[in-house]
Prior knowledge:
transit peptide; AcylCoA_DH/oxidase_NM_dom_sf; 18% strand; globular; single chain; flavoprotein
Amino acid sequence: MPEISDLLNLDSLLSAEELALRTRVRSFVDTAVRPNIGQWYEKAHFPPEIVIELAGLGLLGMHLSGYGCPGGSAVEYGLAALELEAGDSGLRTFVSVQGSLAMSAIHKHGSEEQKNEWLPRMAAGEIIGCFALTEPSAGSDPGNMLTFARRDGAHWIISGTKRWIGMASIAAIAIVWAQTSEGVRGFIVPTDTPGFTTSKIEPKLSLRASIQCDVALVDVRLPETAMLPLAKGLRGPFECLNEARYGIIWGAMGAARDSFETAVKYSQERLQFGKPLAGYQLTQEKLVNMALEINKGMLVALQLGRLKDAGALLPHQISLGKLNNVREAISICRDARALLGGNGITLDYSPMRHANNLESVRTYEGTDEVHTLILGHHITGIPAFR
């Protein structure tokens, strides 16, 4: 029996293995996340003990192969992101930072020595990584980053500041992107290196069950072997960002689905003027509109996943999915909150928490405006970024 949001029997498009993976992650979210997420969110707490559990499910770097990584498909990774974000965006964000950003950077651009040193332990949850690209004055335009790495004999010395770096305060290594005389390069920086410091960004109104930090690098000295040898120019970090953007396409629909299901259940039980709230035409219109966008968003996510597994996914297609699915998910969560009335502003219900989280998801890995311009460039052939 398809779930209430699945009007098209989309489950019929998934394999038995994909459905089994989804069931495992959903069960984990139901037992380990839902009973605790309100408290974690209220206290602005990310539970570090959950990392080993996520690793045990094969969710860290799950779409990467070799070096101890699970080697799952793109669709399987998407389904995992969907279920994690149905719990909370902060959990999907952790998996994204660890696997799609930090591990992906090493997997795509690292040497064999770097891959063998770091990836097995990261896949096992023994080591947490972060991805230091964004700066206080260089968010959507990373080409203007000011962090600089200069050669000093057989070493590199990096100085600069980074902002909105997920998990930096609990990470053992940071993938730091810096300008050099040779263009933008990436470096693996152990976070206990002298001159590397972090501070949590607090207080926040969004992603409260996650960690975002400011990072300062003051004359951080690294050996030549710290550089990612295959990452040259902005293509290096952008390839990693596209991995993270792909996961968001699925994850946002998880937040939307959870909000929709909450609104349906509440409206069926809440009595207004002598009958359930769900029995009124205006309520049904809102619920139908939510379900329509969830089904469309899931079709987008699944098509992009199949393209990715076939090696045919293009950057503008990722922008289409990220722009559409996050934008529609926020609208769904807000409408669901409205159906809950005053009760909807409490942490007893998920839609407002999801809507707040999605404000961050809408901003990171490319704002609406950036993805609009990527699509505009593809459609017209004219870049309009400047």
